Amino acid sequence: MNVVVYLSGEIHTDWREQIVAGIDKEKLPIDVLAPVTDHPASDDVGVSILGEEDKPFWKDHKGGKINAIRTRTMIEKADVVVVRFGEKYKQWNAAFDAGYAAALRKPLITLHDPDLTHPLKEVDAAAMAVAQSPEQVVSILKYVTTKD
Questions:
Q1: What are phi and psi of 145, to 5 degrees?
Q2: Which fold has domain 3-37+77-145?
Q3: Domain edges within the chain
Q4: Average pLDDT for 48-63
Q5: Residue 13 vs residues 42, 108, 111, 123: alpha-carbon distances, Å
Q6: Whether 98 contacts 123, CB under 8 Å
Q7: Do residues 67 and 35 lie in contact, with contact meaning Cβ atoms separated by under 8 Å?
Q8: pLDDT (tens digit, 9 = 90+) per residue, 85-141?
Q9: Cα dihedral sign for 64, 117, 34, 104?
Q10: pTM of the entire structure?
């Protein structure tokens, strides 16, 4: 039986690809789920499906709700949730995903550079592991999905 892992968080680096490559290299019994990482497509999903809006608030409102359907569904299906916090932008959505996963009592792994330890102390307190590299995440997933 495969373990389902949801990869949440920043979309500006290739951390997801590194984790998937590590899972493939180790031949781990893991299925990976992820949000839409094409930023414009994610931002515009609401208006592209439900119609244009005159005000940015309503455009974001539509898009945010449709993205939340995807995100919540995938977090609920996941056995493990990995949330990456990057340096470039404040990822409020990533923090929300981590909180949602914690509220559902999903095993949570946070992934971020050491200089974000203090700002993320509350999020990290909810995590079962705090990793600093995609390789560490793969090692954790290998440990929890193999017999040896």
A1: -115, 0
A2: Rossmann fold (3.40.50)
A3: 3-37+77-145
A4: 97
A5: 17, 20, 13, 21
A6: yes
A7: yes
A8: 998 777 889 999 999 999 999 999 999 999 999 999 999 999 999 999 999 999 999
A9: negative
A10: 0.95
Q: 């019994």: which residue's tokens?
A: 29
The single residue listed with the structure tokens 């949000």 is 35
Amino acid residing at 16: R
- Residue 31: strand, helix, or coil: strand
The answer to whether residues 131 and 114 touch, using CB atoms and an 8 Å cutoff, is no
Q: Are 79 and 110 in contact (CB under 8 A)?
A: no
> Residue type at 121?
K
Could you tell me where the DSSP H helices lie in 78-120? 92-103
What does the alpha-carbon distance between residue 144 and residue 135 come to, in Å, rounded to a whole number?
14
Question: Which residue shows structure tokens 């981590």?
Answer: 98
Q: How far is CA 130 from the centre of its chain?
A: 14
User: Position 85: which residue type?
Assistant: F
Beta pairing class for 129-131 and 108-111: parallel
Mean pLDDT of the region 29-40: 95
Q: How many CB atoms lie within 10 A of CB 112?
A: 23
Nearest to 98, CA basis, from 34, 3, 36, 7: 7
